[in-house]
Amino acid sequence: MENFGPFKLYTKTPNDIHYGRLYTTEVEMPILFSKKRTVRVYLPEDFDENKKYPLLIMSDGQNIVDKYTTAFGAWSIDVHEHNLIKEGRRSFIVVGIDSAPNPIHRALEYSFPFIKIENKEVPGYDFDDFVFESHLFYKYVALELLPFIKQYFPISDKKEDIGVGGSSMGGVFATSLITSYPDIFGFALVFSPGYFLYSENSVNKYLDETLPKLSDNKLFFYSGEVDFEKKFPERTKATYNYFLSKGISSDNITLLIDPNGVHNEQAWSKHFEEAIKFLLK
């Protein structure tokens, strides 16, 4: 089948997709910035319309498989899923939502709901004059985009098969979605989350209100320790430990610190398979 409803087969060349197929469509979101956005759906190489698949929704969708659609490099999820399938692992569908083109808008869109970005250490970013309405974006992803995807693709009905993922502010996106909608999303891939942009008290207050809603939800935390990435591990570790202190089972969350990890897609890509093995058993 060439198309799935409004999702058209991605045929642009050159591209860097080695396995499976990619489909894209344009959506209009009821959000503050860049309302029109591309949504990308990657189908695995062994896709069968008669089966139902786990689903991973990723931030920064332009980065998931094709290096020609990104300025920073791709996760090469098609290659990693190929490797997992060869090992006998379950195949899954990946949805990528392209980020807002303006980096400040992207940060605000992926921010914790109702928490002000306070850290001024990132040059060129001034958030004081912007309205924080990230909750509108998360509501759209959970209550509109996910059902929209399920109209056209065979997605599992089990919560434990529905996950979110992202890196940097995308890690905050993943954290926010699974804590805001724990009955919809069963797992989260949280890479280099930008927790350091917020006061620890603000984040802990938010988690105090949301963590009691988590039960069997699973999270994989990651951070590196090189160059700009040095800003991330301390708060990533602290937040991981805060989850544990609130009674979240160590069977359901794990933390990986890569002493050689830098802050880019190639570094995050190296640990994608390990994360999926933990999150999708």
Structural features:
about 280 residues, alpha/beta, Rossmann fold, 10-stranded mixed beta sheet, 8 helices, 10 strands
What does this structure look like?
With 281 residues, the chain is α/β, with parallel strands linked by helices. The chain has one domain: Rossmann fold (3-Layer(aba) Sandwich), CATH 3.40.50.1820. Helices cover 30% and strands 19% of the residues. It has eight helices and ten strands. The chain has a ten-stranded mixed sheet with strand order 1-2-3-4-6-5-7-8-9-10, with helices on both faces. Strand 3 and strand 4 form a beta hairpin. The longest helix is centred in the middle third of the chain and has 19 residues. It is globular and about 50 Å long. The two termini are 30 Å apart. The model has no long low-confidence stretch (mean pLDDT 94).
Task: Give the topology, please.
Layout: E1 3-4, E2 7-9, E3 21-28, E4 36-43, E5 55-58, H1 77-86, E6 93-97, H2 103-109, H3 134-152, E7 162-167, H4 169-180, E8 187-191, H5 200-210, E9 218-224, H6 233-245, E10 253-258, H7 265-269, H8 272-279
Per DSSP, the total helix count is 8
Structural class, by secondary structure, is alpha/beta
Helix content: 25-40%
CATH topology: Rossmann fold
Note the overall shape: globular
Distance between the termini: 30 Å
Question: Rg to the nearest angstrom?
Answer: 18 Å
Strand content: 15-25%
**CATH top level class name:** Alpha Beta
| Largest sheet, strands/sense/barrel | 10 strands, mixed
User: What strand order characterises the main sheet?
Assistant: 1-2-3-4-6-5-7-8-9-10
The CATH superfamily is identified as: Alpha/Beta hydrolase fold, catalytic domain
The second-level CATH architecture is: 3-Layer(aba) Sandwich
The residue ranges in which pLDDT falls below 50 over 5 or more consecutive positions are: none
